[in-house]
UniProtKB/TrEMBL annotation:
Keywords: Membrane, Transmembrane, Transmembrane helix. It comes from the Bacteria. The chain crosses the membrane at residues 12-31, 62-81, 93-116, 128-145, 157-179, 199-219, 240-260, 280-299, 311-329, 341-359. This is YedE family putative selenium transporter. The keyword Zinc does not apply. Pfam families: Sulf_transp (PF04143). The keyword Transmembrane helix applies.
Length: 364
């Protein structure tokens, strides 16, 4: 166990995890997930929101097993290495609101940081603007961190609190097994299923679940985080997490080349739009929200799996944010930004800046 801990704590450990995620994401696309969306935490949480009927956008409704696997895999790793630490209580309402606006920003761009790099690795030039916005948003968040921004320390709590998010995800899996997709039917029992569009595209359930479990286990061990990689580079000039981030991009690109999935260009990219300013602005908002919350959407799932109740609140915020985004016309589509998406970005930025300026130790 000690040797395993040392490996994943080192540079080759984080590089190996990034490379593995990049290859597996390309393979999940090859096995049935949407193009340039082998793994997208925001998109998959949006699909879960739709599967539960929280929004009724018929093309994005599916209970994604990868997300379930992320949490349960992290739970298994945390127990295996004696790192399950139930904790909660650090500004939960703030984390929920940050989760809502992180999702809204991601759906204006059409992807989380994971999908941004996977879109780039698949040849989508629009992802360049999204990644630039992500870096800018995290940079603003880093400035707040330098000025004393802090959501406070979480407190140790009951073991049952740490188990709630894994139990919710296990419940989602049970619902999938009880109410499986029925050919030609948009609803099976209590769950909704897309008949067309991205929600109808998915790898086999067992493949997706196992992939999520393995990623959850490895990412929990290595502390893999796309937002953290950029933040550490900007704040401390540390490249440890960034090496895993770059490995993901490189190996996803190579896998896409081998699988014939690399298609460079800006126009006609799958589940993407060419409104460059709003690709930038959407991820600016998402990056700022991730930085203020302390982790990218994937990292929040892994922390929730290891007992962090505050991370679980952020995850629920993102799921609810997806419902707002589609019910209120905030989410983009290949045709462009939703009718109310631009206004939502400005509101989200105002809220995030309010949080950043007012929740600083130096401001008290």
């Amino acid at each position: 166990m000690d040797a395993v801990k040392r490996f994943f704590a080192g540079r080759w450990g984080i590089i190996s995890v990034g490379a593995f995620i990049g290859v597996l994401a390309a393979l999940l696309q090859y096995w049935g997930n949407p193009a340039n969306m082998g793994i997208c935490v925001a998109c998959f949480e949006r699909d879960i929101s739709g599967a539960l009927g929280l929004h009724r956008a018929a093309v994005v409704q599916y209970m994604r097993p990868e997300i379930i696997g992320f949490v349960l895999g992290a739970l298994a790793a945390a127990y295996l290495f004696s790192e399950f630490r139930p904790r909660a209580g650090s500004a939960p309402i703030v984390r929920f609101i940050l989760g809502v606006f992180a999702m809204i920003g991601a759906l204006v761009f059409l992807g989380c940081p994971w999908r941004a790099v996977l879109r780039l690795a698949g040849g989508d030039g629009n992802a360049i603007l999204g990644l630039a916005g992500l870096v800018a948003g995290i940079w603003i968040g880093a400035l707040f961190l330098k000025k004393g921004y802090n959501l406070g320390r979480a407190q140790a709590t009951y073991t049952s609190v740490g188990w709630l998010m894994p139990l919710v995800m296990a419940g989602f899996l049970v619902l999938m097994l009880i109410y499986p997709k029925v050919a030609g039917e948009p609803q099976s029992g209590v769950l909704f299923y897309s008949l067309k569009g991205p929600g109808s595209m998915h790898a086999p359930l067992v493949v997706s679940l196992v992939a999520g479990l393995v990623i959850g286990l490895l990412a929990q061990r290595s502390r893999f985080c796309t937002m953290g990689a950029i933040r550490d580079l900007l704040l401390f000039r540390q490249t440890h997490l960034a090496s895993g981030f770059l490995a993901l991009v490189l190996f996803a690109f190579l896998a896409n080349l081998l699988l014939g999935q690399f298609k460079p260009g800006f126009v006609g990219q799958p589940v993407a739009h060419t409104m460059h300013l709003w690709n930038f602005m959407g991820m600016l908002l998402a990056g700022l929200a991730f930085a203020l919350a302390g982790g990218c959407p994937g990292r929040q799932l892994f922390m929730a799996g290891e007992g962090d109740g505050d991370a679980a609140v952020f995850v629920f915020g993102m799921i609810v944010g997806a419902a707002f985004a589609h019910n209120f016309g905030l989410a983009s589509s290949p045709a462009g930004v939703g009718p109310n998406g631009i206004a939502a970005v400005f509101v989200g930025l105002a809220v995030c800046l309010f949080i950043g300026f007012t929740m600083r130790k130096t401001a008290r």
